[in-house]
Amino acid sequence: MDKGIINANVTLVNGVPMVSSLDVAEKFEKPHADVLKAIRKLLADLPKEFNEGNFSLVEYVDDKGEKRPMYNLTRDAFSLLAMGFTGKKALAWKVKYIEAFNAMEAELLKTAKKRVEHKKARHLLSTSPNPNPATGITPTLKELKHGARRLWLSATGSSTRACPS
């Protein structure tokens, strides 16, 4: 890999990992106008349904303080665009972007799993048998089995006949 390759800037935009056309132009050492031209050609050739979810036209303010067009690209949009870029440096950046998208998606999955596990734990705590406040006595084994059975039924949507005892 080229030692000049640092990192690819994949960021979350409305919860979706994306890269800007400006960043792509910089990393692939292409004029932004040429990258925009390549994106517009893709937009003309691709189905509208694909374009809407993968290419997001936004504005940025340039060094002169003027508003300019820029696209935010999903992994799929980036992949289609970058397929046209060739050479060793371009290949190295493609790999860096793929790694950055993978890392971002892995982090999102990890966060989502933690949220689901937290929800499940809260549900289990709210439905688990608690000690009787008056006596402080915890439930009997029979009561625990009944609670576990109730949880199993609600989790699987099964009938009582299919439930293990």
N/C terminus separation:
59 Å
Radius of gyration equals 26 Å
Please give the share of residues in helix: 55-70%
Q: H/E series, N to C?
A: EEHHHEEHHH
Q: Which word captures the global form? A: elongated
Count of alpha/pi helices? 6
Strand order of the largest sheet: 1-2-4-3
Strand composition percent: 5-15%
Largest sheet: 4 strands, antiparallel
Structural class of the secondary elements? alpha+beta
Total E-strand runs: 4
Q: What's the overall average pLDDT, rounded?
A: 79
- Which stretches are low in confidence, meaning pLDDT under 50 for 5 or more residues running? 1-5
Give a verbal description of the structure.
By secondary structure, this protein is of the alpha+beta class. The chain is 56% helix and 13% strand. A 4-stranded antiparallel beta sheet has the order 1-2-4-3. The termini are far apart.
List descriptors.
single chain; 165 residues; alpha+beta; 6 helices; 4 strands; disordered N terminus
SSE blueprint:
Blueprint: E1 11-13, E2 16-20, H1 21-27, H2 32-45, H3 48-54, E3 55-61, E4 67-73, H4 75-82, H5 88-127, H6 141-156
Helix pairs in contact: 1-2
